[in-house]
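Protocol step 4 of 5: obtain the predicted structure for the target chain.
Materials: sequence only (see below). No template structures provided, no constraints applied. The aim of this step is simply to have a reference model before the mutagenesis design in step 5. Sequence pasted as it appears in the construct record:
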Amino acid sequence: MARGENNVRHAQAPPTRAASAVYASLAAQVLCLAALVTFELVRGRSLAAQLAAFDGRPRGAEAEAVVGAVTLFAVLILLLGVATIACATAYTTWLIRARHVGDRHAPAGPVAAAWLIPGVNLVAPVLLVNALWRDSLPPGGRRRRRLVLLAAWWASWLTTLALVTVRLPLETPADGLTGVGVPELVALSAAALLCAATVREITAAQCAARGVAVPTLLRLRRPATPPESAPLGQAS
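Step 4 output (C-alpha cells):
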C-alpha cells in the first residue's frame, strides 16, 4: 500500500519543470522570429531583388555578393523551425503531465487529437486547457479571470495562424524573402506571452492545491493560507 501511495504522489506532482521548458521554448521562438523579421526589414527586399535578377542562380562575383546573406537567411529559417518544434514538444509535454496531476491515467490521445485534427484544432485545444484550469482551481476560483485570459490567448494564436497561412501566401517578392514582418512578430509575441501566463496560472494552482512549494517563476502572488489551516493553527 505504501508503494502504491508513493507512486500516486509521484504521478500527481505538478509539472513545474515542464512549465519552465515551455517558457524557455516560447522565448526562443519569439527571439528567432524577431531576428528573421529584422533580417527581412534590413536585407530581405534587396536580397530578394538580387536573387530575382540572377534568376535564382548567381554565379562568380555575383554569387559572392549574396552568399553570406543567403546563408544567414537559411540559418534563421532553420533556427525558427527548430524553436517552433521545441515549443510544440514542450507545450504538449506540459499539458499531458498537467492532466496527469488530476488523473494519473488521463490518456494522451485527446491532447494529440485536439491539436492535430484540422478544424478541431481551432477550438478543441482551448477547451481542453479550460477544463484543466477549471479542475485545478478550488470551487469558485477566479472564473472570469480564467475565461478572459484563455480567450485573449486563443484569439492571439488564431490571429498569428491567420497571418501566416492567409496573409503571407499573398505577399509578392517585392515584400521580401518570406513576407514575414512586424504584424506576425507582434501577434506571435502576444500569443507566446499569454500562453506562458496560462501555463503559469495552471501550474501554480496545481502546486497550491497540493501544498507544493511554488517556484519563483510561477509565484504570481503571496499564497493565501488555506481556510482550514488557520483554525487548526490557532487551536494548537
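Step 4 remarks: The helical segments are 2-11, 16-53, 60-102, 109-116, 124-136, 143-167, 182-209, 229-235. The two ends are 31 Å apart (CA to CA).
Proceed to step 5.
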